[in-house]
Specification:
This protein is an alpha/beta fold and 325 residues long. It has ten helices and 15 strands. The protein is globular. It binds threonylcarbamoyladenylate and magnesium ion. Magnesium ion binds next to loops.
Amino acid sequence: MEILSGDKPASIEKALKILRRGDIVAFPTETVYGLGADALNPYAVAKIFEVKKRPRFDPLIVHIGDRRWLSAFAGHVPAEVVRLTDRFWPGPLTVILPKKPVIPDIVTAGLATVGIRMPSHPVALSLIKALKNPIAAPSANPFGYMSPTKARHVAKMLEDRLPLILDGGDSVFGIESTIISYRDNQVYIHRHGAITVEELEEVVGPVSEKKDDGTCESPGELPFHYAPARPLKIIASADEIGNSNASFLAFRKPAGGPAVRYIRVLSPGGDLREAAANFFSYLIELDRHDVDVIYAEKIPEQGIGKAMMERLRKASKKYHSGGGT
Ligand code: TXA
Ligand code: MG
């Protein structure tokens, strides 16, 4: 497996050859790294599921290189969705729309809808444009694990299971895209992410949260997801740390020195964007075999803080139920 700098034309050329022969490459996006295949080649897409060990019932996001491609892959696009894509594309917003038959069923796990986004990372865009086809890509982590925000995370997590990783530096958002759908004159949030509720509401007015009612309309919304291997416990402050053989993911700089083995501070000054950019990277660092538990300090649930808390809750549910994916 090779890691090549994504800003060199020769690297894009090499990635292109791999995609054209129906194989997969990892590539950077502004949210997290993706594991990509030609979205119109069902055999190539099948490899993503194998490499990720991902269940076939979990649909993939289709990444397009130009907003004008949308009409080729999605059916009716409601005016509100057009306003959202006008505002946030290229960028970390995924819209769920009726799918056109050209998208293979394996991409959408048999659903009649497809999740589409146009990423803003220049390496992702040049790769998609060079392929002239959309790229289907989940986050480049093994199923159920945390998303990689650096090329070296991908290399470590997927080892020799793929031929090439394009390195595009650290993902600037560090949190996956926000996923929305539109139904009954209403925008629904399926997954909190890098575009905040507040930002969406500036464009389309009030949006609704999809209820976590256990139905599997979007199986990636399974309650256990984004989980470290070590158990994770959410605490209100460092005072609640009860086991010193632990790691601690602090939101702000803690007062005093909590007695734990490892500590990472997401944002010493409490800036949510900075915290998000460090979020998965620090959790990955703290997920060590020599600790019993990872404590995570509660993050204010505003802006991108919602997306981080959504992920922490899912990770801690795995701990409490003993289950997992
Ligand atoms: O930022 C991101 O979105 C990253 C980068 C690589 O683009 N991708 C990503 O993909 O997070 P993944 O596969 O890890 O998460 C995609 C989520 C899953 O929870 C999946 O269930 C949901 O999107 N999804 C995809 N298509 C859907 C559809 N048609 N209906 C409902 N949910 C869908
Ligand atoms: Mg993922």
